[in-house]
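Table S2 (continued). Query chain:
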Amino acid sequence: MTSTTAGLKVREGDQMPSVGLRASDGYLMNLRSYVGRQPSMFLFFGGPSLTGAARERGDAIALAFKEACPRLGAAGVAVVGVTTDSERQQAAYIAELELPYPLFCDERRSAVELLGIPTTVEGGNVNAEPIAFAVGPDGAILDIVERVEARGLVARLLEATHPPL
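Corresponding output:
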């Protein structure tokens, strides 16, 4: 497995860039389509085409968001996952894990490259390293978690979208 890192091209306070991706339901969506309506959490990760420990890590992160979806929905926060897998792989993954949130397909890695998200290459598959963004309704990036672990991730991002008074 090889890793590529060029460093993130966005920082907290920057606007989430506009990039079109195909959603797991087949519709073309733009990452910014969630911006302006409500706070959002964007999770870039590998999962559907991974195996072994890397797959387990991706699954744990995806399931942490699944478990938190009722709480996030009540708080008015949208959740979107992004992988570099195909729509077919994503559809099977959503069904397998019963994910209640959409996945965007970034097979061409346009969003990954635009944001500067590191990738790993294993065999013929290129996967995004897990990274999460909390984005405000104005499109500003509120928090970036580069070393994503399932434990505590949702609470951290929720605090960024709903800071204590």
